[in-house]
Amino acid sequence: MASVEFQNISKTFGAFVAVPDISFQIADGEFICLLGPSGCGKTTSLRMIAGLETPTSGRVMIGGRDVTYLHPKDRGISMVFQDYALYPHMNIADNIAYPLKVRGEQETKRHARAKEVADVLKIGDLMKRLPSQISGGQQQRTSLARALVYPSEVYLFDEPLSNLDAKLRLEARGFLNHLQRDMGMTAVYVTHDQAEAMALATRIAVMDKGRIVQFAPPIEIYRRPATTFVANFVGNPPMNLVPVEASIGDGALHLRADGLKLAPIALTDAIAKAAKSARMTLGVRPEHLRIAAAGDLNVVSGELFANENMGPESLVTLERGDNGRVTARIFTDDEIKVGTSVHLAFDARHITLFDDSSARIPAADER
């Protein structure tokens, strides 16, 4: 396996800037997810690693080698595509063994290797079938087997699970997680599905408009999103974001908004600096909200907009007039009717504050 590095990479298509100027490093054995909405530059970045796109400027390094202008076959990479890209006229054995065929491997050896990889992926009994004769999940594993049949330095995945139904996607996700641990592969995985990224990655690069907004382990991105964009993109449901007016008095921060009651917050240098603009955003994850009880200090109120029963939990969404909506993940058997007034409480230890530039304000326990 090998490391991957982007050194001041940019990519333009005519006047359109797809990737403005990004640099990052992926260590040997890391499983990295490029996560973001459509058009954010994640697939373009992956294609530049693969050699399918040439950077407008900057250098792509794999294993310490400058591969910026090398042909894909000379980069030591394997790639799994979104549409699997299987040859319809070839059986599964020949599809898997094709990378060995183009490298001149003898038929007996390449079929033996293909069977070995297929058995690991539990499709060894399908070798004589055509792609049209197997399921979508089995086609996905065939595509993966083809990528693994020839040892590579880096494995690239371009939304490989997006064509699967929910059950197969969950199964394939667990399988990829197990495979990466066993192989210790260096992998770059493109997805717009934050659940896939959270489940698979050792680190996630959240992208927006061609730039990496945050590059960190999944739990850090979830608990400490760098911006309101990350907070709103990662999480299902996403973090609740409430615009508030900020002021300082009696040595504490005071936040105000319609339908919001908040206890004063202890000042830090970072909070005091951000409060000068008088505008902040308060962030609270849905799981940190609950039905308020008498005497609760931190409460958000509104009219019930929706109550979605998810089995063991309910997603309760309240509407705050022109001030947006707030969603809570609660565990209760009580029926709450749409249109009634609802009060949700939260623990101040679980709030996240963002300044007027949408950047997260460091918590008191951060250096």
TrEMBL record:
Pfam name, any one: ABC_tran
Subcellular location: Cell inner membrane
Keyword Transcription part of the UniProt annotation: no
Keywords: ATP-binding, Cell membrane, Membrane, Nucleotide-binding, Plasmid, Translocase, Transport
Superkingdom classification of source: Bacteria
Record keyword Transmembrane present: no
GO MF term (any one): ATP binding
Topology with respect to the bilayer: Peripheral membrane protein
InterPro entries: AAA+_ATPase, ABC_transporter-like_ATP-bd, ABC_transpr_MalK-like, ABC_transpr_MalK/UgpC-like, Mo/tungstate-bd_C_term_dom, NA-bd_OB-fold, P-loop_NTPase, Transp-assoc_OB_typ2
ABC transporter domain location: 4-234
Main localization, broad class: membrane
Protein family according to the UniProt entry: Belongs to the ABC transporter superfamily.
This protein's name: ABC transporter ATP-binding protein
Species this chain originates from: Ensifer adhaerens (Sinorhizobium morelense)
Source species taxonomy: Bacteria, Pseudomonadati, Pseudomonadota, Alphaproteobacteria, Hyphomicrobiales
